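Action item from last week, closing it out:
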Amino acid sequence: MQEVIKKRIRVFTSLGDHMRQAVNALRQTDQETQGLPDHTRHLYQTALRCARQNPWFTHGEIARAFMAISEMLQASVLHKWASQYPSLGSGNGNPLRIAVIMAGNIPLAGFHDMLSVLMSGHHFTGKLSSQDDQLPVAVADVLTALDPSLEGRIEWSAQSVKKADAVIATGSDNSARYFEYYFGDIPHIIRKNRNSAALLSGNESTQDLERLGMDIFSYFGMGCRNVSLLLVPESFNLNRLGIAWKPFRKVLQNEKYMHNIQYHKAFLSVNATPFIDMECILLQKSPELASPVSVLHYWYYKNFPEAVQLIRKCQERLQCVACEQDINLDGVDMVALGKTQQPTLWDYADRVDTIQFLLNI
């Protein structure tokens, strides 16, 4: 591994350490910032401002994002990831300008793209989401403080992205059509709407179902890796979910989430659409993959081949599938229950290898 890559790994590992310390501060409401290292304090104070600006970005959810990223940024993980690309670090003499249009549905949704661009030695130009316009900048501040050579390689664009050699864009299906038109003549990765599902066998324990709750309620269900469709055998007792998900009723303390659940409860009632009120979420019988915030779709399957057929039917719109069974479905990312929002560095969004894309430009 080249020395330049080892240096970058050290920088990102240090960032992960500061994120982990910021998590501890966010989880202590009486935390005194004077005792925090400067970089940690910067991340912590930015998180507090974001929580005031965006009600979805609570202290707990920002801490969740920091912790997930810090796990990615462990030295051993970064070395394992980087070692998969022997040519990484060899093209530094000709860095390109890579524009990254970042999503804002969950805190630091575009971090992996930022990491990939900088690790590959290119210039990063970030187009911030209005929902998350402070945390990425704070992360960049820490990175440039740790490695001043990065200062000229990170910039932010408040308006449209111009003069890019390549683009990585994440957005809705509608915005993806615009991106395809606008950036069609340069190398690009354009991501559309994705959701995740869970496949239950019926043999899961209460603890397994509680872990499933993490996949559903983390980030209030707003991430592409959040489970929005639950596939269960016909014999499954849905009441088990209400028991297992009692710890997640704290989501009702969030005013925006509470507004969503009240709205959808009224909407379904007025339209005479059957649903099950689990207090913290509404269960609606539907095979559709995407569901609104505070609503979880569920669908019964008769046998395992039918469940696989249901997954295949929506495979192009799936980010991952949570399941406790040892199943290998070609072309589908299968993860353990409770782990959908803890991706590894090589769990590439939409199964597109970002590093390989950057190396091949």
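Closing note: DSSP finds twelve helices and twelve strands in the chain.
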